[in-house]
Amino acid sequence: MEPPSLSNRVSVLLPYPFDTPFTYAADEALPPGTLVRVPLGARMAVGAVWSDPPDQGVKTRPIAEILAFPPLPKPLMDFIDWVAGYTLAKRGEVLALALKESLLAAPPKRGKAFTFGEADPAHPGPTLSAAQAAAAQALRDSAAAQKFSVTLLDGVTGSGKTEVYLEAVAQTLRANRQALVLLPEIALSVQFLQRFERRFGAAPAVWHSELTPAARRETLRAVAQGRADVVVGARSALFLPFPALGLIVVDEEHESAFKQEDGVMYNARDMAVVRARLSGAPCVLVSATPSLESVENAASGRYTRLDLPARHGGAVLPRVSAVDLRAHPPERGKFLSPVLLEAVRETLA
User: Fold this and answer.
1) What is the mean pLDDT of the chain?
2) Phi then psi for 298, rounded to 5 degrees?
3) Counting Cβ atoms within 10 Å, is residue 144 exposed (0-12), middle (13-18) or buried (19+)?
4) What one-character DSSP code corresponds to residue 134?
5) What does the CA dihedral 246, 250, 251, 254 come to, rounded to 10 degrees?
6) Which domains does the chain have, with CATH numbers?
7) Taking the CA of residue 274 as centre, how many other CA atoms within 13 Å lie in the half-sphere pointing to its CB?
8) Cα 305 to chain centroid, rounded
9) 232 pLDDT above the threshold of 90
10) What is the mean pLDDT of residues 26-46?
């Protein structure tokens, strides 16, 4: 067999602490993003063909295998390059957030059946108030435009922010594009998933650290193939290979849980804005207590701001009063003020 042509040299980025790709020989021209198995020293490693020009002056080893998995989308590759430059991390370290060899294997023929892509945007949702309907229409318009924008949705607790941004998700589904909803891992609750299912008639794909390996493997493949139309996940979901990402929502955007503080250090709220820009998609930041950065960006005109100042259905926020413990000290051996105890008794009476 003749050795591979030098003209088919390709650069392959590996998910290890390397900043530059390695050059390998290929039997054919491979587009950037193609996932391959290559020799690395005495072992084999999985990497991605990268857009860097290959080194024509080094001896090369041939690619061992082209994996039967969808290539990484260009926006994700650009995102990996951007995050590495911004955080001063090695590009291979950032790639490791998106590429896990153990999740690339084909699913077994006999195993648990997973379903994706059944969310129905036409499924009837709740009746919105006038303020909610106006905010929902603004978000639908930005989703329909399918271009980068950032909107801060600021609403008091109980104002219906979730129902409002789910209308943007519905608009994204109508355009046959994918939506990503980021939540702090602690907020990925059964109640939220049930609320989503009531709106769309089906559960979303879920991505977080507690998934079984089989569920992660199936979800990753469904996202890469475009079958998972909505993903609700923790911060690591930002690195999933969406081929048609049309919307990113960051719920509870002020939460410190969006900060990755070991390895590649980043704030998922900020990186969501970057991922949306590189994907040409709108990004919605949602909070009852927005971060100072988001408030300033909205005040300066960089972000659009939508406000929901009242609770839905005429509900009112509880009255908050400060109790001076010097004037109303707790009884000896206790820690609750008599004023608070009396208010609790009246409420429960």
Assistant:
1) 92
2) -70, -40
3) middle
4) H
5) -160
6) 6-99 (3.40.1440.60), 130-313 (3.40.50.300)
7) 20
8) 21
9) yes
10) 95
DSSP code, position 112: -
At residue 185, the pLDDT reads 78
Amino acid letter for position 316: V
Q: How far apart are CA 86 and CA 109, in angstroms?
A: 42
- Scored b (16 or more CB within 10 A) or e, 262-297 reads eebebbbbbbbbbbbbbbebbbbbbbeebbeebbeb
231 SS3 class: strand
Question: Can you tell me which residue has the tokens 């379903």?
Answer: 115
Quote the tokens at residue 143.
Answer: 């989703």
Per-residue pLDDT, 318? 74
CA torsion, ordered 92, 62, 65, 40, to nearest 10 deg:
-40
**pTM > 0.85:** yes
Q: What is the DSSP letter of 227?
A: -
Task: Give the phi and the psi of residue 187 in degrees, each rounded to 5.
Answer: -90, -5
Distances in whole angstroms, Cα of residue 174 to Cα of each of 23, 39, 80, 279, 336: 42, 44, 29, 18, 53
pLDDT in tens, 108-160: 776 677 889 889 999 998 999 999 999 999 999 999 999 999 999 999 998 99
- DSSP secondary structure of 164-225: HHHHHHHHHHHTT-EEEEE--GGG--HHHHHHHHHHHSSPPEEESTTS-HHHHHHHHHHHHT
Confidence of residue 65 (pLDDT cuts 50, 70, 90): very high
Give the C-alpha separation, 66 to 219, whole Å. Answer: 21
Residue 191 CB neighbours (<10 A): 8
pLDDT at 6: 46
Q: Write a three-state SS string for 30-44.
A: CCCCCEEEEEECCEE
Q: Please write the tens of the pLDDT for every residue from 291-332.
A: 999 999 999 999 999 999 877 655 666 778 899 989 888 898
Distance separating alpha carbons of residues 336 and 344, to the nearest angstrom: 11
**Residue 37 carries which side chain, given as an amino acid letter?**
R
